[in-house]
Amino acid sequence: MKLPSLFVRPITHFSSKTSKSHSLSFTPSFSLQDFSVSNEIHSILRTVNPMEPALEPLLPFLSPDIVTSIIKDQPNPQLGFRFFIWATQRERLRSSASEKLVLDMLLRKDNAFDMFWQTLEEVKKCGVVIVPNIFKILISGYSKMGLEEKAVECFGKMKDFDCKPDLFTFNAIIYVMISKKVLLLALAVYNQMLKSNYKPNRATFSILLNGLCKNGKTEDALKMFDEMTLRGIEPNRCIYTIIISGLCRADRADDACRLLGRMKDSGCSPDFVAYNALLNGFCELGRLDEAFALLQSFQKDGFVLGLRGYSSFINSLFKARRYEEAHEWYTKMFEENVEPDVVLYAIMLQGLSKAGKVDDAMKLLTEMTERGLVPDTYCYNAVIKGFCDIGLLDQARALQLEISSHDCFPNTCTYTILISGMCRNGLVGEAQQIFDEMEKLGCYPSVHTFNSLIHGFSKAGQLDKANLLFYKMEIGRNPSLFLRLSHGSSRVLDSSSLQTMVEQLYESGRVLKAFKILMQLADGGNVPNIFTYNILIHGFCNAGNINGAFKLFKEMQLKGLSPDSVTYGTLINGLQKAGREEDAFRIFDQMEKNGCKPSVAVYRSLMTWSCRRGKVSLAFNLWLSYLSSRPGREDAVMKEFEKNFVEGEVEKAILGLLNLDFKLNNFSLAPYTIFLIGFCQAGRVEEALKIFSILDEKNVVVSPPSCVKLIVALCKERNLDQAADMFLYTLEKGFKLMPRVCNYLLRSLLRSKDKRMYAFDLLSKMNSQRYDLDAYLHKTTKSLLYMHRHARETKSLAPG
């Protein structure tokens, strides 16, 4: 190819021309030809408009390095942008260096985004082809500036420039949507990407998997993980770590552990992030001994426990009330030269405060400052909550006022802790004063703040005030967005119909509208949430106002909130309390039909009420129904237990259930307590004693309420020997029963001619167990004791 005439000009010509304009920055690898091409391009940029036709002859002589240097040396950003747009049409001229340079210009120069759009409009009029890469850079720029809505708008404008997204543009916008937690829209974009015949790469899956896991969609993430491998894309360390972290967050630490093994088998070595995620997963589940064993195996692979690992272990040890070990690990951390940060101190402060050791927590605050660390509001809030939890509300308030004078101003969480503490101690008036105070100081209440005060009013029986506060949450706001959506032409009533609407908006080119709707839903402000409704429904049920509870139940669904297991459980309990048993079971059936799986608490509530009505068999069948939905329980075995119970072989049925619980490592005392108490209430004391004996033989400590019910039932049947033995069992286990049952037993013994001596023996043992007999014994009991003691003394003094 013949070179253009400019390349035969003398070097002195270029030198003098260059010195008059600006100095050019070239890499050492630049040739004389590169120098000449660059100089000519700068001349074209300054003098020719439109520049594109004049640049075309120079294409064969351009390289990515020349493109980068020209953009870097161009004093006019708009000309630099225009040249970049033109050059980027050719894939061979693209480079990460030039893209980074343009992105840096967008972020650093004033009005750079406006200039870029103006340039795009100009080149569009000149018929220049605009490639997706240009929009990818704009989207990234907006994202880095925190202008995600602009990024989505930019993506939507691509069609105005006859430009279709490519894989990298799709990845860029999906990343933006995931970062703003609008997962539905991100998935709609991904589906459109597949329809456009673009094959997702590892980066696509990494972004989406991270979003799914952080949004708690672990099952969907695992399906996408499988889809990725079916497409022939092998997971890398980053993707394995994302899934491991997601499984741990979903309380599936065992699955995460298996995936780590698979990761190692594939030749991909885990890094400290994956190890820490797995350790934290076991710690959060309270499986500390397994976490310690894992740590030892990881250390054999060269893993060194760092600050995050120590934080996980210390936090979990505090939660498990293993306070001494928590302190040992804290000391060990310093021995290993691991310096604590504010987060670790917040964990320590929270742990000490929850243990009631607020004095130690205050000393730790001082230690923090001595180490040069400034306590943040999380640290102070932990101690304030500690004071509230042990009823030291004045000290809590004093600490809040103290931090008000520092830069560490109390936040919404601080006030919420104080309001919750006041309400828990029955000081609802003071709680309301704090609520009013925070609003005056410009610290706006959160949903949790409202919920705490609404709960306080509800518990205090002040439902009118609770209702007023409930409606105040939406004062000054537009009607709920979800309420408007639910009454539109395309009704949105649940997450499925919302997903359909988002996909339709995206496919019709209204991606920005879809984004804005999802952001408004996510940023709902102080709109009452499911917890708010549950608190109020509970309040109405407690007050016996079932109609008011159901009115709220319907209202929450109109506003797009789906009732959860707590909502249904509260209504079921309220109906049972009102004697509407059939309606309660109707709601229970409706719950399952609506796709809300009844929790164990709902089953236990129904079982308890059935037992109160003497329907122990119904309670037993309900429990078998719950167990049948759990893994490891075969239908044939459950039916055998049911048959045993119906045929009166209670002992066999209970023992079979208990053995199965131990075998599956899933024992809970609660159902056995319900059965035992139920038999007592039904007057079937013999069966209740059988359950007690089975539990005792299995070294299960029977609960105090069960013991109380047995003592009362045995006394009524005049079986005072076993009643006294049951009371001795409570003394042996260190239980301290309420005065009412103690007096009932003592009076029953004292009124029995042949069992009177048991009363005095029990009194002696109660005294040794530090019962305050003077405070515990009622006047009638004291009179009987005095009378029989006096009779004994008189009898012993009588002659002969």
Could you explain the architecture of this structure?
- PPR repeats lie at residues 131-165, 166-200, 201-235, 236-270, 271-305, 306-340, 341-375, 376-410, 411-445, 446-480, 529-563, 564-598, 668-702.
- Belongs to the PPR family. P subfamily.
- Keywords: Repeat.
- The protein has 800 residues and is mostly helical.
- It has a domain at 1-130.
- Helix content is 71%, strand content 0%.
- It has 46 helices and no strands.
- The chain is elongated and about 130 Å long.
Oligomeric form of this entry? single chain
- Strand pairing plus helix content: what structural class? mainly alpha
Instruction: Estimate what percentage of residues fall within beta strands.
Output: under 5%
State the major sheet: none
Number of helices: 46
| Helix content estimate | over 70%
Number of strand segments: 0
Query: How would you state the average pLDDT, rounded?
Result: 86
Contiguous uncertain segments of 5+ residues: 1-24
Shape: elongated
Radius of gyration: 36 Å
Task: Give the N-to-C terminal Cα separation.
Answer: 144 Å
